[in-house]
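Listing 4. Sequential folding, example run.
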Amino acid sequence: MKRDNNKYIIYLLFFQFILINLLNGQSIEVKDVSDPSFLTYNKYPIDSNKNTCNFDFFIRSVISNGTGGLFTISSDSSLSITSLKVFNDQITQIDKILVSDVPNGQNSISLTSNLGLINASTIINFNCELYDMNSIKIKYIPNILADLDPTAYSGYVILSGLKYKSNNLIISTNGYSVLVNSDSNKATYIILRPLNITIFNQDVTCSIYFIDYQFNFTVPSSYLYYSSNSDNQVMYYPDSPMFQKFSYFASNVISITANYTGINPLIFLYRASGGILTLPFYQNDNGTVYFGALQNFGTNERIAVVSQYGSSLVEINSTILSSIPISSETYFPSGTIYILKTTLGTFNNMTYFTVYFNSSIYFDIIDYSFSIDNIQSVLPWPFGFESGTNYKYSFKVAFLLSLMSSSWNTFVITPYNGMTSLNPLNLPPDLVSLNDATPTMKHYEMIILDSNCYLIRIAPSDDFVNGIITINNKPYGYGSLVEGDGINGPSMYEFVYENTNSGVGTIEIRGSSGKSSPYYTSQPSYYSSIPPKFVYDATAFNIYNIYLIQNVSFLYNNLNTTNKSIDNIMYFNFTDVTETNVELEVVFLNNFKLLNGRISKQCFAKWNSTIKLFQVEFRVPANVKTGYFNYNIKLGSIYTNFYSQLLPASNQLYVTSSRFDQYGPIFKTIDKSISQNPNQIKWSVTIQDEINGFDYGHVIVRGDMDGSRYTINLSNNTIISGNEFLGQHDIIVTIPDICATQSYSIIEIELFDKQGYSCEFYMTKSFDAPSNPFINYFGDPTINKITIYCDDYQDQTPPVLLSFQSSRVVSSQDNSQTLLFEFQVTDPESGLKSDQLPIVYATSKQLEGIFNTSEIKTIVNNNTIDYKCQIDLPYGFGYQSDILFSVYGLINNGGYFGGYSSERLMSISPNSYYMSNIPLIKKLLISKVSIITSSGGKLLIIGKHFQTDYKVHIKYLDGNLVFPQVSTPTISYSTSIIINDIKPTTNPFIIKVVSLNNLNQSNEFTVYPVVYNFIDPSPKPPIKPRIPCAGTPECGGSKNGYCKENYGCICYSPWVGIDCTSQVIIVPQPSTNTSNPSTEIPVIGGGGGNNNNETNTETILFKSLISLVSLRELDFQSNIVNTYTFEKWVYNQIDSNTNQYVTNITIPKSNTTTTITATLQWFKEKSIIKFANQQLVMNPSSIKYTIDISNYDFSSKLNQLQLIMSASISASKSDDICSSKEFGVTSDSDDDISNYIKLQVDTVSLYGRFIKRAIVDSTVQTISNILLDSSMNLITNAASSQTYIGIQLPYYSDSIIIDPDFSILIDSKSASNNNNSICSNINSKSGLSTVQLVGIIIGSVGFAAVIIISIAFCIHKNRTDAKFRLFVRNKTIHMDKKK
């Protein structure tokens, strides 16, 4: 009976428990939350030769009304099921369900979620389907550029007729690797790549295995065969195989010059372990030069140079490498690292820790990174260097101890170049934790901004206080806070995430105690009971099958890039895409860039809704290698890449060039020297870049002992002699009078040519060995060093910091916060090295750091200097934290450096070594913008604290002083704004973000568009309409010349001129002007009168004057920058017919001198000369001006020069005479190479020819000539005619030469016959031109004008003479002919 009672009690308790649960209303909701796409539930087998599938599902369990816990998942299915917990917050749990070895056919499982006695179930249906062998088809697409990189891939195989994604094909090949990629459009792509360079020309035997079937097929080798002769030139750098240490990442280099200059053959270096590809870098007269790096070769190892010869490989050179000692030393500190922990007690009881060590191993230029549990910070040299020299020094840094868990944390110091770390150091826990909670994520958004930029919005749980959010271990703190104060209540954080190649990856919400919640964006993102919002669909690009690209074309093709870059447009689309807003990144890679791992500037393809195609604007650099110009289309930076080599030839951009240069500038010669008074060391280097030309660069020199650094910038403005193709530059470092004996070393070089190719050298960073500017000096490892010997003086103590003050100011204009510092430093022994400025650092929690270089405020005396420094405080930096200050980089003349960590500053300035209570002040800020072209359109603006109702004000630099355009953003978040209405412009423009009430305005930000100029690089000759030749009759009649269609008048000797009505006058050589290069040519002639029907035997003296007026510098908008008048010339007679004049002008900007040399040559007889590759006929009695201008220091590379010349002709009589003026293009040749000016008085003319070519830096270039009469003070009347010609000279480096000439003509017709003539008569001095007179006559309407003139003639007949009556009659007849 007792046993029955116990059983009754148990039943009663169980019933009460069930009843309580029912009364509480608890229940479980379980739901399948897998990716709802079709392919989640329908799959092929896990391997193509198997008949079972694997599936992954995600289910969510949620408990309602009560306390939850850990759910358990169960199933009664006979299938193999594994459950993995992904997320649990006691209320909600996410489980990943792995279903393995599912047989083919329709299947289902029932999953039950259990929590105590409560449970709920859901059913998932899915299908495992075998391959249908009857529907599968195979097609091979070769890589048409495979010969350029045999180790890349030979092509790809398309398997079509598939129903689902199929990345699990079992494939075998003969020596080729296989990459399988499948898309949502039921096609699978097999990328084939040779495992070894030596099998590049073998056909690929390929097999794909299925359950009961095997596909066997052979893929022919796709490599193109181009023969190479066996007499290639092989050179080693250095010329001996022995190699001494030059830098830590240098290596020997081999060059091979292939004498074939088209699409070059394959050349590689062969060793026992395989082949190493060499790359074509540039082309010279002997052929194309290949380079290869001799890395990781052992002692006495044989190396062979192997070249492609037809379809075979031929050994063309071999050698035994005696020794290739590639340096692997790591010059890092040794000894014990000690830790000091001290409580500040000033703000939230936060703690800092100090790490220090001493080292007697030489420090060699490497910055250190600091990390605590995957949170990393890099603060550059001299951070941490407290005292000593680079040979023996003390290192000490201090950081705030925050975000520490209750367990020990690992602190690591690592040389920031991937080399060996210092021993990790365990930090004790921070026992003062602000919050012991484990924060989670409440909300997640990912918004696409453009093809390479995403906006991430995260709302952490409310217990996320003083924490950080990490994305792929990069920490983000309060600087990313956009909503809330981060302390009380909800908050939102925003991040603009750029240039990601692998997606967002792992996101971690880490609290102040160190506890964290990780999230993996590659998994379903159901992080709470409310799924996060996805504005950006991660599958947006899946609508494009990247292998189904079509309609690829280019605005221009078959381009000749010899010495010129060409702007172009590419068009393409994908199958079934008719409209889209998605942008695609397109990277254009020429052959060398692709192989060498360097990438040219990225561009973005945008949808053109008019033509229904994507289009992308880009620039083809000058002098690229002949062949196909590669491009790579990226479907979002985290998605598939597609290389143009896999497209047919019809989809390729083909370029040619007679010159090939993708190699940066190098040092051809180097001379080292030391000078005194002042003490200077100098490398005099000759920079060589013979095709593209040197553009700019820099060199960094470091003192090997004291670490002092000097940056020397180089450009074409620093050329001592020569030009951009081969020019001398000086690298100079000034040494103080009191100094320490030490070497100064070049530790970094970057040199760029005018197409953007570079050569670099770094002492401790990796770089491309062939692209080393020192390549000609590999045999001299000391070429980058100069040792200066002082008076055996070395200061053994560091400089001393006497005072240090810090403060914070907030701008009333834009809310910006600035840290201000003032400090005094002294060194009583040797004095301070005044050209080495200390650096002030500020650090906060999570190893955050900012810094800036100080400047000299006052030099107190020879040993003491007052410094000042300011650091702009980023938004959120130091909020809810302290800021620690430190100062390093105090260097004295005796070779000793010093620095002060935060701990050491405490003893000098107890109130200024840190700062607390930093407020969170919002500042409206534009920090950067996206790339925009001169076509205008969309602009992405990135910054801080935008609001949805803010506008963007735009000011185009076209003379406006205001912002005329106000744009409404189409997308607006706190950190990013997009506008779509930027106008097309080739000029920079200014933007600012403004609130509706105009009270809140951002900084003004200047945007520089990428300017494209789409000009057909090979325009077809235009079909010119039939234009009558000049003259009445044409060309002076059949005896004077004839008219050549679309060319002009061809004159018979002795006739010349545009209408063959002028003859050259043979005159005596004019007298020489020894003061200036002006020429006066007197001519005695008879007056022709105002018409040709009346003779005038009066003798008239005509004077022609030619002179050089001035030189002007103009900006790109033709505004005058500088004007130089020619005041004093130095005269020199070359021979009886040639005189030379020289003058100098001083450029005020640089106080440099430019020399102008004018050579005047008189031609007594007809001669043929050559100038600028053109043959020119010099008429007898003509004078030629050859003007040579030396190097000029332009204010800008966009500027040009304008040389002004004056020409005039005048007559000794002023009545009954006419003058006229003509300016145009000569018809001397089809090229229209000359402008002409013709100044005529009566029947005598001064004729000037201005060649439209100049010799610019030894190269022939086209120039232009313009008439300046409208802006000059002319003296023009009936008896004289004057003009001013501006010869437009482009930017140049070394010199420019021009060559105008002048002669005197006698015309068969008077100037009165020209429409623009100005005439006078005996009684009237009105000076009305013929055109004006005719206009007056025509204004009297028809024949009535004749009557009026006749009446006027009758009234005044007693007051006029016969000559005037004849003039009126002729004018009347002329008017009738025009009717």
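-- end of first protein; second protein begins --
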Amino acid sequence: MSQPRPDEFKPPPECPVFEPSWEEFRDPFSFINKIRPIAEKTGICKVRPPPGWQPPFACNVDKLHFVPRIQRLNELEAQTRVKLNFLDQIAKFWDLQGCALKIPHVERKILDLYKLNKLVADEGGFDLVCQERQWTKIALQMGFAPGKAVGSHLRGHYEKILYPYNLFQSGANLLVSWTRAICVKTEPGEPGDNKPNLRRRMGSFVVKQEPDSLQTPFCFQVDLVVCLVCGSGGDEERLLLCDGCDDSYHTFCLIPPLPDIPKGDWRCPKCLAQECNKPHEAFGFEQAYRDYSLRAFGQMADAFKSDYFNMPVHMVPTELVEKEFWRLVGAIEEDVTVEYGADIASKEFGSGFPIPNGKFKVSPADEKYLKCGWNLNNLAMMNPSVLTHVTADICGMTLPWLYVGMCFSSFCWHIEDHWSYSINYLHWGEPKTWYGAPGFAAEQLEEVMRKLAPELFESQPDLLHQLVTIMNPNTLMAHGVPIYRTNQCAGEFVITFPRAYHSGFNQGFNFAEAVNFCTVDWMPLGRQCVDHYRMLRRYNVFSHDEMVCNMASKASTLDVVLASAVHKDMVSMLQEEQKQREKGKKMGMVLTKEAKYDHLQDDERQCARCRTTCYLSAVTCSCSPGVLVCLHHINDLCSCPITNYTLNLRYTLDELFPMMNAVKQRAELYDEWASLVKETLEAKLEKKKGLQIFRSLLAQSESKVFPDNDMLRRLRLVTQDAEKCSSVAQQLLNGKRQTRYRFGSGKSCSQLSVEELSSFVRQLYNLSCSLPQAPMLKELLNRIEDFQQHSEKVLADEVPSVAEIQSLLDVSFDFDVELPELPRLRVRLEQARWLEGAQQASTQPTTRTLETMRRLIDQGVGLVPHPSVEKAMARLQELLTVSEHWEDKASSLLKARPPHSIETLSAAAEKTSSIPAYLPNCRLLKDTVRKAREWLQEAEELQDGDCTPMMDSLSDMVLRGQAIQVRLEPLERLESLMIEVQEWRESASTTFLQRDTPFTLLEVLCPRCEVGNVGSPKRKAKKGKESPRSNKKKPPRLNTLSDVEKALSETRDSTSAMATLEELREREMEAFSNLRAANESKLLPTADCMDLKVCVCQKAPMGAMSQCELCRNAFHSVCVRDPSDSCETQPWLCPQCQRSEKPPLNKAVSLLASLRRIGVRLPEGDALHYLVERTVNWQHRAQEISQYFNLPELEERPGTPPTLTRWASGSHDWNRTSHTQTVFYTEQRCIPLQGLSHDLEELMVEGLLLQVCLPEVQSLFHVLLDRASSQHTNRCMSPPETMIDSEKKAKRHLEREGLNAEHRGKDKKHSHKRQKMNKKRPASTSSSPRSDFSQSDDSDEEMAVCPAERCQLPEGDEVNWVQCDGSCNQWFHQVCVGVTAEMAEKEDYICVRCTLKDGHMRK
């Protein structure tokens, strides 16, 4: 369906349509009075007569001739006519300028010059629009599309066509003109006016002297015509002569200048102003030149419509005609002309309705229409119409008018004369479309039309009374005016109400008849209309005062309702008349005379000023015979003194007041009776009158012959009802009280129904009169109603109380009335118990199992059907069915293989959530969906998180996801990650782990955490002050591998993991440092060598021994060495220190890269990452230290043993003989610790701890071996200070470079102690760097001090201590001297100092 255009007509809402019954249709005035409250809100209404009411058409078609009016459609609409008038002015302006106006086209549309001119004027004029460049804005306001440079075109057209006209309108082109004196010398006898008749171009006139003249011959040239603007006669080619007054102007001196000389007649600015300022003729319809018969007009009308729409007339839709009509009236470029036979007097040509004694012969069946009230010839003059008191026949008001229409012929916006009613009947033909506005919106409609077309009202102030102007209803509705419409078809009436503006048009050829009428309610509006006409200076159709006086003269015969209205109107009329007469007397009028104005024609007694028809009085003057004015315009009569004026009176005030009193008496008689009736009918409660008062009022109305109006009819109806009710009530009260006989149904043989009793009591109390029987019946009814209300309340309860039902059954025996609630109460008693059980089960959904519901349903089947029971049964059955269905479905969904998606299960779980029952499978389904959503949320967070996921969380998620019976999309990807991680672990294990190794991959890759970290029962509490507890949480102590694995798993990123492993590395280095010192001190000479326990077998050293290069412990070669292992090129590590295969570094880097590609973190991966970084850092540190100590480049050396064939005497020599003669020796070379720098030792230890194979470690090992041998040789040949000085030099170099700042002070102390010891015992073979000790420099007085050389200052609530069993009895930290808890508990500990002291003394 196509969308309507924005400017397409939109039909207003429909007005009310009434279809009266035959009874209502019988009296037209009663029916109109009945519908008036509804219809007057819309201004117009349509009435469809009852079926069968079809009056014959009585007009003689052949003899009816008329001359129609010519209507040009685009001149009817107010705004369109304003545009056309403007275009006429423009055309006339340019025509007088000698140019023909041609309206330009812009964007293929005719340019609306009126709108363009108005928009430019609203923006401040042409100059301001050009200055502010507003032409694009104006183009948009005119509806042109933006961006097409239309503004420049509009400017050009405005400047060419409208700008000169606006200059003319403003008077800017009217300049002061002058005539220059022209001296012309003429010859005697030669007339000066003997010059050529020049019209357009004026030249010069040369006066030649005769040859015989006595004067000196000369020739001079004089300008005969000069420009009135510049005073020059030059440029004669551009000089114009006005065709009206013969004034001359240069084309370039005009405002604005003319570019070319006009081709036609040209008028100067003065003549132009005179022509254009002539007053316009009032607009009106022209009469056609042809006289039509009804048949000829119909042929013309049908041919026009058929040709216009190109289809048969009966097939054209009314909606199409309506839209086309309003399009045409608003189109300037389309000029459609139609003809309308309007206001044809029925008195001259005959009415369409049959009339008595008319020329039309009425059949006996149609004689009823002769006197029918809806016959428009009768309606206006019926008694209820006040127009019956107008003496003259008023054509169009009291006599019907005929209307013959054709397609598009229209009647413009107007209200009826004197704001009266009108009624229009369409005898036959095509429909007539009506538009109407309610009377209360009349002034609003007038204001809107004045606002939108002010130019029309300036020339015609009473334009709306001329019936020549129409305006689009959509325009009026847009400005807030309520408009309604209807299509009047043949055989239908349209009624318009007082002051209701209406208009419309004809859909085609039709014949209609209309007349006016006025009812009693119109009287105040009629008086108001006369005052309105006086203000507009519009003539009256009849004299309202004369009509009122005519009715007052017949006061005794007037209808009392009409008399009341006439009295009210006369009161206001006489007050105004008395006021104006007294005003005239005060002005000086003294002359009065009687005037019979009712004998004069209306046009002979009109006020000369306001055109009001005078009746009660008028003012005349002897100087102006036949001229009179009303009392409101005394000063407008003439210039004579007011004392010369004569006051002409139809009635004196003494005559008028008795007339008013007579009407008043007639009205008061009725008013008194009506007031009493109203008071009686509207009385409430105790103020109600008895039945006798009503009977007396009815009798009074019959005796006074009051009108049979609504009040009297209501009084009669109330009296009749009261008499009937009184009789029935008396019979009920007079009858004997019936004893209640009980039958099987519990009903007595004679009982009233409660409804009958209630209806009767209600009727008694609704009566306007008071009956004495009502209270007694009311008391009985109240008790019964209370019982019924209580019963209904109990019966309406879902679970009524058994006690309540039983009490109601007991009360019911007191009423001898048929009570339908009794059997229901008995049945309800049984149902209540069942409902209580069902309700109790519903309040506890957690206990409502399937078995409970089945049991309740079985019990409810045996009850009597009841809505509440059936509803509860239905709910239970439905709940049971739904529950069983969802239980089975939930079970099948959870058992489905492959599992369903979470969407499917979630939708099912959501549906089951509203089931108020305990369903195990459904609960399991909800729990499964919840777990699946939580799992998916975790998976999404795992995927979207910035950190790489840990293996533990990934494994946990996979296990939990596999346990959830839902198809989880990310699970497959996570499982594949798990497989890749497992494969990586296997690959890493294959690379690093030895065959049948007891170590795990993480244990191999991580720094060691269990070296010398076991507590001892031989400990001492830490002295001194407790450090204040800090709110900062201390990191967990990494004592076991599980602690390390847990700590790595809990780290959020690799950085945290690296920090944890770095801490572990420091502890590892410290632990090995202590372990090496302890093992070295254990192998020092003691009293009994057999007390030592070494090797894995924990036996005394004996025979061939091997010393681990890392832990420095001794092992029996037969226990730990493989006979086939003869490689002496690498440092030998014991089984505890040799933890892995130590693959090359590139293999470890490759494994790390593959793990990063997988994208999963695991403790082994972090450990491997740290191992690679630790290895790289060690390589860099080894390179730096080798440079500091002037070591050879650490590079891979050939796998050949060193050249030394035996151990130097400065190295550890285990070839010793004790008192037990135990002898042991070593099979491989070890780096001697005596004289070895702490940095080099630490570098070598960390290199051996690395779980990758580095050539630099082997090279460092051989370099240190070779360096130890050379130092031993040098020490034998030179003082030891040489080495010490060299070492100090290296220390200073390290100090300058800022490396190992923590150990520099300790190394210096150590060097001095070693120097001292060497001086003291130069041949000592058991000296160890870690055997010296010193007091801690930063010890506190209140704290115990560990005398170990390298005290670790351990912290914590408890610190393990061990006491020397030698001669010093000092306490040492176990961790500082490398003693484990087991060693401290089982063996005696002797510190290094006591060992050295005791050994020296033994020697």
